[in-house]
Amino acid sequence: MAGIEVLAQELLLEIMFMLPDNIGQKFAIAQISRLWRDVALDSHLFWSSFTGDSKADYRRLPLMLERSGSSTMINIQFRFRYSDFVAWRTDASTVLIPYVPRIETLDMTFSVPVDATALLGSGMEFPVLRTLHLDPGIGPTLLFTAPQLRALDIDAIGLRDWVTLLSPSLESVRLWGGTLEMLVAVLELCPRVSRIAVKTSELSYGNETEARFEALSRPFAPALRELELDVFEDTDLVRVLKTGFSDVVLHTLKGRICNGHGEENVALLAGTLLLGVGPLVDFKLVDLMQDVELQDEAGHVRHLQCWNSYFEVREVWKHLSLHYDLHKTVREIRIHAEHWHDYVEVFESYPPQLEDGITLAIDTSQGKFPQIWDDEGHFQQASKILQMPGLFKVKFCGANDSDYFLQTISDVLALVEPPAGRKVEVCVELETGVQSALTTLRSTLLENSSSWAICSHCVRCVQ
């Protein structure tokens, strides 16, 4: 019996580790019964990872830290909102100071400015810190080091000496509200970095920063695979990419600009982001006028984005077809939202040409489809027929949390003209409810259809 009791306690502890990390919930779990309390109190690991988001959590912080023991790594997350926030006093930072040698994750998000100088502004070293996220509520004076840091995420914070955080161990860096000079410093000092995201509102990419970029010894950041640049001026984006990355073909490259209009944006972004990529095989429309994702046959991913400005999908499709032969090479086209007639017109202008090889993916997560806006700003049912001679498969993907999902499939297929002489496969890739949707679909809409058939993968799901 003693062995069974030990096994039961080990299983109970595994269950506890799967439950949320909220401080209040941890205390509630420890009060369920004497057994649960004993198991929780005997485990320093149970108390070493926690999320605080209320005044009660704030008061329990010293007890959480004490129960974490003396050698367990600590993972801390604070999520204080306006309604629950209690003033972050110097003594709160002081409570954490003795535990700095064991803090592995520090994630601090506050809805109001706080003073964390005692913890983060006194030049201390965090010897085992791996993940750091600080949001705009922290600051303004931050000065410390973390020689083992792997992931750095800073949101709109002006560090007094932020370079001290650029450890050679860094693998992921996100600087939201940073500068292009910070980008150069990351490339200089972080040889293991594989992902960089920089958002900056600075109005110019100065000659001095560009000269530093050009002076970097090549290859810099040899592990870099993903780069995201969100800049104010389109010319800055071009200069950064051409100065630093004209001879590098990254796995993922995302460029976002905040001014300019129409066809100029398309040409600018495409000409800069698509350098070195192969034939484009995937076209994903994330947003009709602001965000397009492309992928070539080697798997390189490219995002073209515009904020506070626009480009129309017909301009993107036209430009990429004229200059990159997109309409000749694309194998999958993914669309969503309600502008069905715009899609029909786009694909009529430069029809996709791969014979028997095109997948049309419909994202169902944003509501009923297909619809259009009428002249008065109301939804109405779409009526234009989409013709795509090389259509091989229609795929429905995304969420399935609405009662009209099957009706959506029916509406879409009614507006797609399948190629003559053969059936087009229908595929369902949903987050939930795949089997029930396929069963209903198979027994109703597609049972005796001469145009549509459930794809072989989906057939196996309902057998």
Characterise the protein shown here.
This is F-box domain-containing protein. With 463 residues, the protein is an alpha/beta fold. It has a domain of 130 residues. Helices cover 33% and strands 23% of the residues. The chain has a 17-stranded mixed sheet. Helix 1 crosses helix 3. It is globular and about 75 Å long. The N terminus is likely disordered.
Key features of this structure:
463 residues; alpha/beta; 17-stranded mixed beta sheet; two-stranded antiparallel ribbon; 17 helices; 21 strands; 33% helix; globular; disordered N terminus; F-box domain-containing protein
Short description:
The protein is α/β, with parallel strands linked by helices and 463 residues long. It has helices at 2-18, 23-29, 34-41, 44-47, 55-67, 90-96, 117-120, 180-189, 207-215, 234-244, 262-273, 313-324, 326-329, 340-349, 405-414, 434-443, 456-461, and strands at 49-52, 74-80, 103-110, 131-134, 151-155, 172-176, 195-199, 226-231, 252-257, 280-287, 291-296, 301-306, 332-335, 358-363, 371-373, 379-381, 386-387, 391-398, 416-417, 424-430, 452-454.
What is this structure's SSE topology?
Layout: H1 2-18, H2 23-29, H3 34-41, H4 44-47, E1 49-52, H5 55-67, E2 74-80, H6 90-96, E3 103-110, H7 117-120, E4 131-134, E5 151-155, E6 172-176, H8 180-189, E7 195-199, H9 207-215, E8 226-231, H10 234-244, E9 252-257, H11 262-273, E10 280-287, E11 291-296, E12 301-306, H12 313-324, H13 326-329, E13 332-335, H14 340-349, E14 358-363, E15 371-373, E16 379-381, E17 386-387, E18 391-398, H15 405-414, E19 416-417, E20 424-430, H16 434-443, E21 452-454, H17 456-461
Parallel strand pairs: 1-2, 2-3, 3-4, 4-5, 5-6, 6-7, 7-8, 8-9, 9-12, 10-13, 13-14, 14-18, 17-19, 18-20, 20-21
Antiparallel strand pairs: 10-11, 11-12, 15-16
Organism: Mycena albidolilacea
Protein name: F-box domain-containing protein
